[in-house]
Amino acid sequence: MTKQNSANMIVAIQELLKNKSVGTQEEICAALSKKGFIANQVKISRLLHKIGAIKMTENDRVVYRLPTELATISPKDNLKQLILNLTHNEVLIVIQTMPGAAQLVARLLDLANDKDVLGTIAGDDTIFIAPRKVKQIEGVFQKLSKFLLN
Hints:
Arc Repressor Mutant, subunit A; two-stranded antiparallel ribbon; 6 helices; alpha+beta
């Protein structure tokens, strides 16, 4: 007997991701099949998007994880795995992250209460950071680089 209920499938996917027993869409599909669900890659992709799962690098491989698992990340953890690029011009600092990670990284920056940062704006995979004083952007950039990448 196969299970077709999407709500049950979502719960099963969340359980698999919480346990970190699977990472890729193919692994999720195979694990669901063992549990009696009929699922293909398209359905898995749609359900991963629906539950807000994000792609991230873990042990040198790209996997899906739930965003709530990332909520406990602190600056002491390895944030390097979420950050793809960090750059600036004369006005803004821009951080490019793994898809889905920008809001988490921006939140950590906001919680740091750096007096030299005026504010952050985060999308899905890009963060804009406005320094309090544009003339000090290089110093703010260096401080943020050290905070996030070391």
